Amino acid sequence: MKKIIFIIAGAILLAGTISPAYAVNPSAKETVPEQIEVATSTPVAVGPTPAQSEEYVLPYPGILPDNPIYFLKTIRDRIMEWLIADPLRKIDFYVLQSDKNLNAGILLNLSNKQKLVSGVFAQSIADIEKAVLLASSAKNSGKAVPAGVLERVRKSLIKHEEVITDFAKRAGDTEKSTLEALSVKAKSLEGVLAKLR
Fold this sequence. Notes:
By secondary structure, the protein is mainly alpha-helical. It has helices at about 1-15, 50-55, 70-85, 85-110, 115-140, 145-170, 175-195; strands at about 35, 45.
């Protein structure tokens, strides 16, 4: 009887600490005031600068490939990929996986595990390539691909090219050619995506 009471009390405490997570609608626009009045009554523009408007934030990757239980994450991701039937949702899934892998490569580099970086970036490019090919296939079959989905893929590709090119500039001779090839692949995928618009 005491075990049941402890389990119920533990469940109530655990339920009280969990906060709900809500999805963010990427098409929703924030309202930003155009000007703010300062004490000197000089208007100051508050809006995104041209450099900030193309900013693309990478999602947190979770468990990194150097973790012993990383294989569980890959199994989960394969199952999720298999369960998604809608091509548009699958494109979003591939872009998310690709962005997570790109960020994982950045974090691996920060923790001095450069040997894993090229492989993680290669997986990232493979995932974004799946997204582009699926968008192309959907478009060719007559299914409408929303402009927002294509824009998200485009921004992700630009971020991939930017990050991988930066890494290629700082890489040693052995990894430099691999990273440059990945950067060229990202650039060619941008060309394929541009034809879908």
